[in-house]
Amino acid sequence: MKKLENKVAVITGGGSGMGKVSCEMFAAEGATVCVVDIDAKSAELTAEAIIAAGGKAKAYPADITDETAMEALFADAAAKYGKIDVLFNVAGISPMGTATTTSLAEFRKVIALDMESVFIGCKYVIPYMERQGGGVILNNVGTYGLRPTPNKMGYAAAKAGALSLTKSVAIDFARSNIRCNAICPGFVDTPLNNGFTGEARQRFLDTYQPLTLEIQAKDIAATAVFLASDDARAITGQDIVVDGGTEAYLYFNYKKKTTEN
Ligand SMILES: NC(=O)c1ccc[n+]([C@@H]2O[C@H](COP(=O)([O-])OP(=O)(O)OC[C@H]3O[C@@H](n4cnc5c(N)ncnc54)[C@H](O)[C@@H]3O)[C@@H](O)[C@H]2O)c1
Hints:
By secondary structure, the chain is of the alpha/beta class. It has a single domain, classed as NAD(P)-binding Rossmann-like Domain (Rossmann fold, 3-Layer(aba) Sandwich). The chain is 46% helix and 15% strand. It contains eight helices and seven strands; from the N terminus they run βαβαβαβαβαβααβα. It has helices spanning 17-28, 40-52, 67-81, 104-132, 153-173, 198-208, 217-228, 254-260; strands at residues 8-12, 32-37, 56-61, 86-89, 135-140, 178-185, 239-242. The chain has a seven-stranded parallel beta sheet, sandwiched between helices. Strand 5 (135-140), helix 5 and strand 6 (178-185) form a beta-alpha-beta unit. The protein is globular and about 50 Å long. The structure holds nicotinamide-adenine-dinucleotide (NAD). The site of nicotinamide-adenine-dinucleotide has 29 residues, from helix 1 and helix 4.
């Protein structure tokens, strides 16, 4: 039996990167997938590819920061499929900036996209999950939510907020049989990181990531499938780090340190 047979999943950011691969993997594991993205065309392409491969999917063009649109989306999905078993919040942005180089408008934008949207998703999906006797919420946070790196102030603040929110939801709704976990990817090769390639990217990985493999969107999708499945029934309120070991050590410049020793 497939891991997500008969489950209904709403996945945001389904038009690209980790969201897209997650939509495909959830569908391959038997889930019916609601593909949410602000880019209507890319959401449609993901849904079409899933259907062409024999899976079940529907594109939902929507802005995750639009409360009214998201409320309507969950209502439509619940009416169409009879339930919503999983919400995977993946869509987001990753701007640079310090406290002095970030404008208030830019700060509010990253908070809206990377933190408030998680609140909106939880707020409007939980009533359906409570009514049906349970569900799973997964939030794609990132290791910067655990510890900031330089020049990522707004992003790190938004992700730290999303992580705290994850734990609150886990605690508040555990007795409704709703599990809520965060996934914290390290550096993943997706369109979001298209500007960070070649030597600079390699130097970054050599320096900061103990495992030499390249983390791919499928590594995050596979983690999400596990957390969404009944195999993870005892896991809630956690941050699951998928970063090749970066978060496990204190001092940077990993390669230099090991070759000298
Ligand atoms: N790539 C990484 O290394 C990395 C690491 C840790 C965390 N993350 C986080 O993972 C998430 C996804 O990253 P990715 O690398 O897959 O990005 P991506 O840019 O490949 O995909 C993001 C998707 O979100 C959609 N989106 C953007 N704004 C939206 C909105 N307002 N409403 C609906 N959809 C919207 C985009 O259209 C796009 O399809 C982000 O929250 C990012 O911060 C990424």
